[in-house]
Amino acid sequence: MKTVLQLMSIFTVLLLFSCSKENNDELNTKYLNGVWVHTDTKTDTIDFNTRMFTSKKTFELRRGKEKRNGYELPKIGSGIYTYEITGDSIYLRDIISSYGGSLPYYFKMDLNRRSFEIASFAPFTGGLMMNKFKRTDE
Which branch of life, at top level (predicted)? Predict the structure, then answer.
């Protein structure tokens, strides 16, 4: 009987931890949904409402257009990324990149959940190492 109680206790603890992780993922997605604008450039935006042909979490980085070789093309770094947040890191993968892995970057959501800081994963104007994005009021 004692063994059964121990097994039940272990099962209950594991169940609680698995539910907690699921809720944290749900909360992260809920707080990130929307469009965020770079506080310095005011033109670069991250849209977490983007959904692609993948079961992974995605966002679209929009950086505007520029002329290259006589063509008007999206600025370098523009595109759709998959992401996973773990602690103070966000793991990103550009879905059109030939590199198959995800790279970690610093990520910190402000307590008010109206802005976040992210390490430079694209060549943002000004060459900043840390970039701040603020939620738009759309």
Answer: Bacteria
The residues, any chain, with a CB within 8 Å of residue 57's CB and separated by 6 or more, are 29, 82, 83, 84
**Which of 1.25.40, 2.40.128, 1.20.1070, 3.30.310 is the CATH number of 26-135?**
2.40.128
- Break the chain into its structural domains and give their ranges: 26-135
pTM for the whole structure:
0.75
Predicted confidence band of residue 59 (pLDDT cuts 50, 70, 90): very high
H runs (alpha helix) in 33-138 = none
d(CA 116, CA 131): 8
Answer whether 107's CB lies under 8 Å from 118's CB.
Answer: yes
